[in-house]
Design goal:
Helix 1 packs antiparallel against helix 15 (404-420), helix 9 (221-239) packs across helix 10 (255-263) and helix 11 (286-298) packs parallel to helix 12. This protein is an alpha/beta fold. It is globular and about 50 Å long. Helix 6 (167-175) links the parallel strand 3 and strand 4 (181-184). Strands 3, 4, 5, 8, 9 and 10 form a six-stranded parallel beta sheet that branches. Strands 1-2 form a two-stranded antiparallel sheet. A two-stranded parallel ribbon has the order 6-7. The protein has two domains: 4-20 and 402-420, no CATH class; 140-399, TIM Barrel (Alpha-Beta Barrel). The protein contains 15 helices and twelve strands. Bound molecules: 2-acetamido-2-deoxy-beta-D-glucopyranose (NAG) (11 copies).
Length: 421
């Protein structure tokens, strides 16, 4: 017999099912709970040229239809995909009348941000690039995350992947049982889908880093929506999961950009320590970046991280940045009690909309490994536990039943249950 709990659950589900979410129509041939990556030289070799040889993915895993996508490495509207029925429907589903009236910014001829005329002191738009602001001035906009709160915790994050040549780096992370937050560029996911599959398979926390990696405040509302949406669709196509989190390239975010991300239920993750590793050879020497790493590592034991942890900006971009990571992580592990991804350090157990994969909360991460938290134990000790499949995975199909008809049926079932009771 139904009881009142059943009725309440059915009613709540009925309400949730009433709105179709934008990601419900995304398709994927990949089951994120059971990923096996095709064994081709690109996925097994350690030779850069072999790893970076382009391949045609197995269409049963990654079914690419060009007419449904922007051009890679160009603004996500550049090929006119924004006039498609799919994008137009999404665009029209947003209440643009409520969007903040904040100007689209421009770059100076030298590539730097043009801040002329902006009130830097009062920072009315919470523009990180000029002020480091992370708490929106607008209501109803998701606040940025920029730190792991637990003391002596290194928030492990890598931007700009999946890079074609990451096999040695991902093998290293796996060996050390480290789970990072990986901010993937949509264009890289389209070019190297098996690389993205591996990120999910290895238990990393996958988040978005936009379609074409531009200064977000310089894009129009429609361009921003396309940069977010097609990256969501790409990550879902390659992995079967859709991220709730994203990171602004160059940290360039203001309340207009945050408002649009919030319409897609996405939250920005920034950082509070920057290694500048991406700039080796472009304004920074290898030695300068190594010094930054060494300073941040020292902070793990000299009192700087005694009351809170950090989130460190590092990159997957290329061999230089990945080798820096491999060379420094052993010392990170010995100087910090905890080295983990942003989902775990923030207790975000469901960092994807699908709720198929759950991540350990910080206390679960601690409990899962008695040596986690002991900085002097073996290097793997601080890594923490793997994401697990959750009980909801068997019922996740229900999440896609979103039509009004289904909502109506759920309410009807609830009413029947009341009648039976
Ligand atoms: C965003 O999340 C809210 C609350 O969970 C939900 O009601 C809404 O449908 C979601 N919107 C989209 C576009 O996914
Ligand atoms: C996992 O995938 C493999 C093939 O890739 C398949 O043979 C196996 O049955 C799957 N297991 C589950 C539990 O779905
Ligand atoms: C691939 O996508 C196309 C267009 O969406 C569809 O017609 C086709 O059936 C799909 N193929 C597979 C193997 O899923
Ligand atoms: C598509 O985007 C481009 C570039 O932002 C813009 O010029 C064009 O007007 C947009 N098209 C539609 C139908 O909105
Ligand atoms: C890595 O990228 C940086 C620019 O971001 C460049 O200066 C450096 O030479 C690259 N290293 C390799 C090995 O390609
Ligand atoms: C800890 O180390 C950092 C980096 O070397 C340094 O800037 C800071 O002053 C040190 N703090 C203390 C309390 O020694
Ligand atoms: C990926 O890494 C390789 C090797 O380090 C580098 O040559 C390439 O430019 C990187 N690709 C991207 C898209 O950053
Ligand atoms: C970087 O390239 C060198 C030379 O090819 C290679 O030995 C090393 O393993 C690479 N590092 C990473 C992290 O891939
Ligand atoms: C995570 O959960 C633990 C245990 O409940 C709590 O102490 C901690 O404050 C939480 N962290 C965040 C960021 O919510
Ligand atoms: C940490 O590990 C070291 C070396 O294995 C051990 O001697 C020490 O007792 C451990 N401390 C705690 C608090 O577990
Ligand atoms: C627990 O710590 C041990 C020793 O440091 C390590 O080998 C193991 O991989 C860790 N396990 C988990 C689940 O983190």
């Amino acid at each position: 017999m139904f009881n009142s709990v059943t009725v309440a659950v059915a009613l709540v589900q009925g309400i949730q099912l009433a709105t179709a979410a934008y990601y419900d129509s995304f398709k994927s041939g990949v089951n994120p709970l059971n990923i096996s990556i095709p064994s081709i030289p690109q996925t097994t070799s350690y030779d850069l040229a072999t790893e970076c040889t382009s391949y045609v993915p197995d269409p049963s895993l990654f079914n690419f239809t060009a007419s449904e996508w922007p051009t890679v490495w160009q603004t996500a509207t550049s090929n006119g995909i924004n006039s498609s029925a799919e994008f137009t429907t999404l665009y029209n589903s947003i209440a643009w009348a409520n969007a903040p009236n904040i100007p689209v910014r421009t770059l100076n001829t030298d590539g730097s941000m043009n801040t002329a005329g902006y009130d830097v002191v009062n920072d009315p738009n919470c523009w990180w690039t000029v002020s480091g602001c992370t708490v929106p001035k607008l209501a109803d906009v998701n606040k940025d995350i920029y730190q792991c709160p637990e003391p002596a915790t290194w928030g492990l994050t890598y931007d700009d992947g999946p890079n074609c040549s990451h096999n040695a780096f991902y093998d290293f992370l796996q060996e050390k049982n480290l789970k990072a937050s990986m901010f993937y560029i949509g264009s890289n996911v389209m070019d190297w889908p098996y690389g993205a599959m591996r990120g999910v398979r290895d238990g990393h926390h996958i988040a978005s880093h936009t379609w074409s990696h531009q200064y977000m405040t310089t894009l129009t509302n429609q361009e921003l929506l396309a940069e977010f949406y097609y990256t969501q669709k790409a990550i879902h196509l390659a992995t079967g999961v859709t991220p709730r989190y994203w990171r602004a390239p160059y940290g360039d975010v203001d309340d207009r950009v945050r408002w649009i991300a919030s319409q897609l239920n996405m939250t920005c993750v920034l950082w509070d320590y920057d290694t500048n590793d991406w700039a080796v050879g472009e304004g920074e020497t290898l030695q300068q970046v190594q010094t930054a790493y060494s300073n941040f590592i020292q902070m793990g034991t000299n009192g700087t991280m005694a009351s809170s942890g950090n989130i460190v900006l590092t990159h997957e971009i290329n061999n230089t940045t990945m080798q820096l990571a491999i060379d420094n992580l052993p010392n990170v592990l010995s100087n910090y009690k905890h080295v983990t991804n942003v989902a775990t350090c923030q207790n975000i157990t469901y960092p994807y909309f699908e709720q198929t994969i759950s991540f350990p909360s910080f206390s679960q991460y601690l409990a899962s490994n008695s040596s986690a938290g002991n900085a002097s134990t073996a290097t793997g000790g601080a890594a923490g536990s793997s994401p697990t499949t959750s009980a909801t995975s068997t019922t996740s199909g229900a999440l896609s039943l979103t039509s009004q008809v289904n909502a109506g049926l759920m309410v009807l079932m609830a009413m029947v249950a009341i009648a039976v009771n």
